[in-house]
Amino acid sequence: MKKISLGLLSLILSLGIISCVKTEKNAESTSDSKVVKIGITKITQHPALDAIEEGIMEVIQEAGYEALFDLQNANGDLNTASQIANKFKSDKVDVSVGIATPVAVALANTIKDKPVVFATVTDPIGAGLVSSLDKGEGNVTGLSDAVPTREHIQLLKEITDLKTLGYIYTTKEANSISSLELVESACKEFGIALVTQGISLSSEVKQAADAIVDRVDALYLTTDNTVFSALASITQVFGKAKKPIFASDVTAALDGGCLIASGFNYYKAGRATGEMVVQILEGADPDAMPVRFITEPSDTDLLFDLDVAKACGIAIPEKYLAMANYIFENGELHEK
């Protein structure tokens, strides 16, 4: 295994934090190694996106690069996302990474002469990042976190026998619009009425939850970063109403409040993205790199919250409990 030594230098900048992490490929001096600049920006801060960021950095460090990381958070603001993209361009970072659709699009629209890697973009074609999943688009490639929406809704219907499903989504995110189409298709297939509530900002999430909770039997949440940044307000509203939530982001649901959470392990998704960055640093052409997907069952997680199940009067079949990675019960998280 490669030996790693880390030194961290944090400088407060107008748009975020730069951290310098030095690694070694072996025990010898790294004086001859090339310093690489890696810009990483995320649309907002919440556990899943933080886990992606961590995974990306760790893989680059483990590959033995002396890396200068510029970590940025757009705080859900598209103008800030554009400013960050321009900053990365001006600083001539070697590779820019966009975690989530809006920041990835900002990077791709701004930076044309350096590699851009997107992380966990549900619909990269719909977002205009690539025109094919079989290859990159010029200097752009990355990883998709498309989730099995149909299977999620089928499971929720089986366990809760719901007739009306709620869906809160961000209207300005291409990712969320694409997900809405999948939700609509699944609801039509299973004979479920769908009630939607659009938002623009995380500050609107609680209001959306209040507006929808009395009109639905349950709520389904796809990988919408603006919504998940305010997940606690949703679980509060639906918990009080004793109505279940199915979340497609397990990392964000580990604190409890969602009956079911099923989706990718975002730390592993970050590591997969980091592997793509390393390939580019070692000479791979982004244009020739196909969009990567998380397909291994070991890279996905399943959580059941038995406290929510009890409050909602729902019995979860043992066959599903046996498949879970996490069980939340009596206010505590248990990892299996």
Task: Kindly summarize this structure in a few lines.
The protein has eleven helices and 16 strands. It has 336 residues and is α/β, with parallel strands linked by helices.
Describe the structure.
The chain has 336 residues and is of the alpha/beta class. It has two domains: 166 residues, Response regulator (Rossmann fold), CATH 3.40.50.2300; 154 residues, Response regulator (Rossmann fold), CATH 3.40.50. It has an eight-stranded mixed β-sheet, with helices on both faces. Strands 9-8-10-11-12-14-15-16 form an eight-stranded mixed β-sheet, with helices on both faces. Strand 8, helix 5 and strand 9 form a beta-alpha-beta unit. The radius of gyration is 20 Å and the shape is globular. The N terminus is likely disordered.
